């Protein structure tokens, strides 16, 4: 089942001041800097953004043409169908919980951002880490294992195999970046759908004011939550929304010190593929200058329920029919139609 992300924050008057502030100013959506946060401002804001772009590291996050030219890549496990370059653009955003000294770690946040051809919508699609999928050359496993086996390139190939559509760009941020960005804006106020005990603090059902370290625990927790990995994914989306709202607030946007610290934290913890140059990012920011926060749609990739893998691990079962429909929607740039047909 695929469900568009909603919570009590959507129904409260908490967002009303944000909507009022959005009137009369343009929002620059910096899709590739940390979790697609919206940074608002005038055209002059691009100059400020440009001053921070040199902090961003580049790496080989995409598969080579030989490996990624078809959904099957090496002809192994992902189907082998011709890979379609769809309309619009698809970005993979990876949040990694790598610790110092790790070569590879399992990715904790997997989000595909689809930017429409008209640049009027951005769909953020959360892929639960426990989705049981085919990984090229590795057989069936949880989707986050692809990152552990072969880093971002193998995770890209895995997602392309599921969807049949090309991933155009990729970016990753480690979890230290979550904490630093939260602290840079003075903490965030997040809505929790259910309570949990994080050890050093309690999360209550409802609003929670979190520091960076607390936010890090908040987005990592899953064992005590009612739907495990799925509940954690909803927490991660709630956190993204909270950080967006806080970043858009006058207390951050109109405070040069806070804004500078936030951009420093975001860009210094970000790694992007080699096609994402400062020139490319400036062009993307300008092309998305008319985007508003209401044009960002959160959703969860389709699954039918929960199960157990042959090794005994808990897994989320892919809804194969809806996943194919999602891939076709990405190819035709009609994610809105896909959501409208969701039952």
TrEMBL record:
Pfam families linked: LytR_cpsA_psr
Cell envelope-related transcriptional attenuator domain ranges (all copies): 106-247
Segments passing through the bilayer: 27-49
Assigned keywords, A-Z: Membrane, Transmembrane, Transmembrane helix
Record-stated family: Belongs to the LytR/CpsA/Psr (LCP) family.
Protein's recorded name: Putative transcriptional regulator
Species this protein is from: Nostocoides jenkinsii Ben 74
